[in-house]
Write a structure and sequence with these properties.
The complex is a heterodimer of chains A (203) and B (681). Chain A is an alpha+beta fold. Chain A has seven helices and five strands. The longest helix of chain B is centred in the first third of the chain and has 16 residues. Chain B is globular and about 85 Å long. The chains are: A alpha+beta (203), B mainly beta (681). The complex binds copper (II) ion. Chain B: GO terms for molecular function: copper ion binding; nitrous-oxide reductase activity.
Chain lengths: 203, 681
């Protein structure tokens, strides 16, 4: 691999650091009585919001419908995900230094799998919270579940819920993109034209 | 006409609103007996008044205005131009709405050397200053009856400090901040026989002339935190000191006080204090006074006054009793104080935005004198004196006079400025606002107002750069302005458009109790800094329970301490037992919410007290002494959520000496029958 390709791979590894600087996902809730809105921020290692009280206010609203309170402690993922990210960053750097194409491919595919598993896990906990409601809930709407949208917009009772990836996710996207680019650019260039020519002559 | 108006209503509501207003005022003159109509149409009503004051639902006003409440001891906050009431801030009054003065945290605010005084006569709001402009940090107000000065924090709109003023009686010409808020000045209205120990002496009224003295207090203000401290007082001759105003620009170092009863009459002042053709405008060089005081010219005397402060962290007030006060005598301090003769019983003293002109509103005079600051300085330099009074030089009237506004109207009380070279004065007797020019002292316009105006306010009208778009005039009598409400009617404020050559009436709005003066300020100097809720982490109240697991009920002798929490939609604990008749039960309720506009209230049946309203993140305490056995409900008083009605609990009160142990709980977890919901269907 050429130096600039190694640098691309290095950048791919470093990009994952965005996960520690920004939330991965944001869920926005808005209703007439909440004109300022509520924002839940999901980080790789914690839960937060646009202001300090957000998580508490989410839970206060959710308690009417019997949704279990959301706490950072309820998610084991938040504990081990940072290690996974660090693992990817370190191996990414190692792969960049070794400059082996196959390793780059392997790393990229593994990251793609990791990202997908993350999204799937996220979706599963949305489903779990939205459907596992306390039978003692003060407000029960027959047939109603409260799964927030994974991506995009949904109306839940009087709340407009909007769910979007945030800057942290860009870290994963960049990681995949840059590593993929490093893999693509480092392909053996000489053989391709001859293959093409053979093809034309055959036809 | 009626049906035509009605048709407009149906087809185009907004146009019809404007039309009917215009038509209404036109019809008034020919149909004064019409049912449901006021007798007084507004003269000079702007044809487009409705749209000029219309602030659509959800939109905010351009300005905040702070109106004093007079005898209700409160400040009311209105939006301008809509006239919407935004808030009532209790200062010198108990306020059942939020428990101010009732709960244990704020009772100390109303302590004085005379004991607990839950009332005062609040006259003048004054906004804090930076560089001669209002900065929206604090509002200072005076208590007239039991001399006090209070500070309201405009990030929370709460009264955070009240200081009693010793050697004062009728703290009327108060509180006037200097241009950088170095000092807030407070002058006494009534002179009294000072006993030089912080109180008044037991003397005969016959001795008024010799023994009565006034005082001007110099309250130092902490530049960062706003905390007040009585630095020193100037003991002045025994006149009545009515109003004050600070200089600006060239007159920055000076502050001016109007006086009446320079006759020193002790009885029937209505006549006795109206004999001299001229009383005085007292001018004090506050910087020089501060310098004299710092240099050791000040003497010290015993005093006894309360200083009450609310702590941000504990949300609780504490009183400190001060035992000393320093004072200066003008006769010992050359160059510090001068008297300017002013026509008959002057009331308001107002300094124009340039700081050059001092307008003295002689309420019994037929002209409105305008003094010149530069002439005053020259007269001092040239010693153009007309004798002296109690060792204070009196300047020659002609030497300091810029000119007189001829026939301004009857009974001028107050003047404010638009920053475009115009002055506006209220005429109490002839019931009008008169606009005149500072350049030629000629009257330019008149606007009749309903009825008998006292103060008027132009937002920033007492600063370097007034916001010359609106004028609010506060009226003392309100017959016919609103639907009748028995013998007592609300006072009124009227909003006048002063952006053009002619004044235009825009709006009437009722005001709470009697507004004496007001201050206005652009909303964006206050709104962005408004506190939305208190951070629970920063709550340092000694009895705070910051989470539900911290709650407790403990007994010590016959005092029971309940540490409680409130959150939508329950109180913890909500079942308390083991209380006995005659116990003193202190409920300390912490609001665990961290969201805007979610206070919880707390009230107990039969408590000889009020509710208390707890802001998010704060702790407030209610004292309750049960007198009979039984079960007493308590509940949240502020509709906080869909389950607000369920936000309640019970206290069991047993006979004195009962063996029921102290216990408390909230909702023991019950097993839910597995098929409960299914079987119900
Ligand atoms: Cu409540």
């Amino acid at each position: 691999m050429k130096v600039y390709q190694k640098v691309l791979m290095l950048l791919a590894a470093v990009s994952l650091g965005l996960l520690f600087l920004f939330p991965m996902w944001k869920i926005y809730l808005k209703a007439p009585q909440y004109p300022e809105g509520l924002e839940l921020h999901i980080w790789v290692n914690k839960l937060g919001g646009s202001s300090e009280g957000v998580l508490q206010n989410f839970n206060i609203l959710n308690h009417y419908i019997g949704m279990a309170p959301i706490h950072a402690e309820s998610f084991a993922e938040l504990k081990y995900m940072p290690y996974i990210v660090v693992f990817f960053m370190i191996t990414g750097v190692v792969v960049a230094l070794l400059g082996k194409r196959k390793l780059v491919l392997g790393w990229t595919l593994l990251l793609m799998v990791g990202g997908s598993v993350g999204i799937l896990d996220f979706y599963l906990w949305l489903v779990k919270f939205g459907t596992t409601l306390s039978p003692e809930a003060p407000i029960k709407v027959p047939g109603m579940t409260y799964i927030p949208p994974l991506l995009g917009h949904k109306t839940l009772l009087n709340f407009e819920a909007l769910s979007l990836p945030a800057w942290g996710s860009l870290g994963i996207a960049l990681g995949i993109l840059l590593a993929g680019l490093a893999f693509f650019l480092s392909r053996p260039a000489v053989q391709l034209p001859s293959v093409a020519r053979t093809k034309t002559t055959v036809s | 006409m009626e049906t035509l108006v009605n048709r407009f209503w149906k087809s185009a509501p907004k146009a019809a609103l404007l039309l009917s207003l215009a038509a209404g005022s036109a019809l008034q003159s020919c149909n004064k007996t019409g049912a449901g109509e006021g007798g007084g149409a507004a003269a000079g009503l702007d044809a487009d008044a409705a749209s000029k004051v219309y602030v659509a639902p959800g939109k905010h006003d351009e300005l905040y205005s702070f109106l004093s409440g007079g005898f209700n001891g409160q400040v009311s906050v209105y939006g301008i131009p809509s006239g919407r009431l935004l808030k009532i801030i209790p200062v010198f009054s108990q306020f059942p709405e939020n428990g101010y003065g009732y709960n244990e945290e704020t009772k100390a605010m109303l302590q004085t050397s005379h004991g607990f005084i839950p009332w005062d006569d609040l006259h003048h709001p004054k906004l804090s200053r930076k560089d001669g402009m209002t900065d929206g940090r604090w509002l200072f107000v005076n208590g007239n009856n039991t001399p006090r000065v209070a500070r309201v924090d405009l990030s929370t709109f709460e009264t955070v400090e009240i200081m009693e003023i010793p050697n004062s009686a009728g703290n009327h010409c108060s509180p006037y901040p200097t241009n950088n808020n170095e000092y807030v000045l407070a002058g006494t209205r009534f002179s009294v026989p000072l006993d030089m120990k912080g109180g008044t002496a037991d003397v005969s009224m016959e001795d008024y002339k010799d023994k009565f003295r006034g005082s001007i207090s110099f309250i130092k203000v902490d530049q960062e935190k706003g905390d007040m401290e009585l630095d020193f007082q100037v003991l002045v001759p025994g006149f009545d000191y009515d109003l004050a105003n600070g200089g600006k620009g060239p007159s920055n170092d000076w502050v001016f006080f109007t006086t009446y009863n320079t006759e020193k009459a002790g009885t029937l002042k209505e006549l006795g204090a109206s004999q001299n053709d001229r009383d005085y405008l007292a001018a004090i060089n506050w910087k020089l006074a501060a310098k004299y005081a710092a240099e050791g010219k000040a003497k010290e005397m015993p005093a006894n006054y309360y200083h009450n402060k609310l702590d941000h962290g504990t949300h609780s007030a504490k009183s400190t009793i001060k035992k000393k006060v320093r004072y200066l005598l003008p006769e010992d301090c050359p160059g510090m104080m001068y008297l300017l003769p002013a026509p008959k019983s002057p009331h308001g003293i107002d300094v124009d935005p340039t700081g050059e002109f001092m307008v003295v509103n002689g309420k019994l005079a037929s002209t409105l004198p305008v003094f010149s600051f530069s002439k005053m300085m020259k007269a001092i330099e040239n010693k153009q004196f007309d004798g002296e009074k109690n060792g204070i030089p009196v300047l020659k009237y002609e030497a300091v006079l810029q000119g007189e506004v001829k026939e301004p109207g009857l009974g001028p009380l107050h003047t404010e400025f638009d920053g475009k070279g115009n002055a506006y004065s209220t005429m109490f007797v002839s019931s009008e606002v008169v606009k005149w020019s500072l350049k030629d002292l000629q009257v330019k316009d008149r606007m009749p107002v309903y009825y008998s105006p006292g103060h008027l306010m132009i937002p920033g009208g007492d600063t370097r750069e007034p916001y010359g778009k609106y004028l609010v005039v506060m009226n003392k009598i309100t017959k016919d302005r609103f639907l009748p409400t028995g013998p007592e009617l609300m006072h009124s404020a009227q909003l006048i458009d002063i952006s053009g050559d002619k004044m235009k009436m825009l709006l009437d709005f009722p005001t709470v109790a009697e507004p004496h003066y007001a201050q206005g300020i652009k909303a964006d100097l206050i709104a962005p800094k408004s506190v939305k809720f208190f951070k629970l982490d920063e709550n340092s109240h000694p009895q705070a329970a910051k989470k539900e697991s911290d709650v407790s009920v403990t007994r010590k002798g016959n005092v029971v301490t309940v540490k409680m929490t409130a959150i939508r939609s329950h109180l913890t604990p909500d079942n308390i037992e083991g209380i006995q008749v005659g116990d003193t039960v202190n409920f300390h309720v912490t609001n665990l919410e961290q969201d805007w506009d979610v206070p919880h209230g707390f009230a107990v049946m039969g408590a000889n007290n009020a509710e208390t309203l707890i802001m998010p993140g704060a702790t407030q305490s209610l004292k309750w002494i049960p007198k009979k056995t039984g079960v007493y409900p308590f509940y949240c008083t502020d509709f906080c959520s869909a389950l607000h009605q369920e936000m309640q609990g019970y206290v069991r009160v047993s006979p004195k000496g009962s063996s029921v142990p102290i216990s408390f709980s909230t909702g023991k977890k019950k097993p839910v029958p597995p098929a409960a919901t299914a079987s119900l269907k």
